Amino acid sequence: MEIARNHAVGIENIRFEIGNAADLPFEDNLLDFIVSTGSLHHWKSPVKVFDECYRVLRERKDGYTMGARTLPKAKLIS
Fold first, then answer.
1. Is the CATH number of domain 18-77 3.40.50.150?
2. Cα-only R_g, the chain
3. Mapping DSSP to helix (H, G, I), strand (E, B) and coil, where does residue 78 land?
4. Beta partners for 77?
5. What is the pTM for the complete model shown?
6. Cβ-count burial of 29 within 10 angstroms (0-12 exposed, 13-18 middle, 19+ buried)?
7. Where along the chain do its domains lie?
8. How does pLDDT run along the chain (78 residues), one tens digit per residue?
């Protein structure tokens, strides 16, 4: 997290959070973009996580997830 924050110095509209991906601490239709890298294989219930991402993303916004075992393939959800 520290590395990500250091790379984002000077960017005002970015926020980093640690939490439960199957129970995101955000209201519905709040976020413009979600990124998750290297965590997919840790999710106990991927369907719940994708449902949560869909719930918190604004309409016509995007999420990006890339699992460690699927490198270099990436999947875009929207």
1. yes
2. 13
3. coil
4. 63
5. 0.69
6. exposed
7. 18-77
8. 889 899 999 999 888 888 888 999 999 999 998 888 888 888 889 999 999 999 999 998 888 887 766 545 555 565
